[in-house]
Amino acid sequence: MPPPFDMISKIHLPREAWRLKARVLRLCVVPSFGNHEVPNSMEMILLDEHCKKLQDTVKKPLLNRFRDHIIEGQVYRMAYFTVVSNHGSYRATSHEFKLVFLHRITVVAVDEDVIPKTCFNMLCLSGIDVVGLLTSVGEEKEYAKEGKIVKMIVLELTSKDLTVRCALFGDYVNQVNHFLASGYVEQPVLVIQLAKVKFFRGTFQVGLQNVMYATQMLFNPDLPEVVEFRQSMVEQGVNGTQPLFIANEGKVVSLEDDFMRLTRKCTIEELQDNNEVVFF
Predict the structure, then answer these.
(1) pTM as predicted
(2) Which residues, in sequence order, are bridge partners of residue 168?
(3) Separation of alpha carbons 101 and 63, rounded Å
(4) Residue 137 contacts residue 244 (beta carbons within 8 Å)
(5) Which residue has the higher pLDDT, 153 or 273?
(6) 231 membership: H or E segment, kind and range
């Protein structure tokens, strides 16, 4: 009889012979820094039956072996990992450690209904996973970065007595535009998974920003967490039937200017000394 599966919460250094049964909650292939046409790694968020999450990395030498065989949403049996510390000011999970695939690792897909298909760390607009009413959409802007034009918009999310702004770049702007083109005019519930929290020095303000290749946005998803959120808003006297405020429909708001003004500017030398890291 095979040994029991290990719990994600129990993973620690330096042991490597871990046996997990977990769902791949999020999966992204990350391109190389200097050449976006060349993949550098595959990043995953694993979820076990106790709703504990863990980041897992497949490095470049093993990409061809696993890239087309691991599917987001599927449950797998996995054995043998390198365990490393989960450092950085941006951490995809709250776990102290994260995993890296070894050459001898085994990965087998299994049918499993016990492990949840969704699991959010909802902290009312102050955590990695965020749920809120989308109340305002700022004017779309374009910025030149490394010779390319990058789109950018700022959203305003409200949850009970809190309001926070979220800056979105690149394809995430296209996702918002696609939703707006659907004709939905009320304030939708927006779930943002794996957002990056921005603390503005010298102020008491907090903002959010998408993380490239990692953040996922869900508009009005049919999830128990969203039902619970809507009910909590109704209890606060907010039903979400107000019209969505869209700045580029002839109205003017300062969401983008405020966000860019509050974001700290620094030199290349200062960036090299900055210990902030971005997942994916």
Answers:
(1) 0.67
(2) 153
(3) 10
(4) yes
(5) 153
(6) helix 224-235
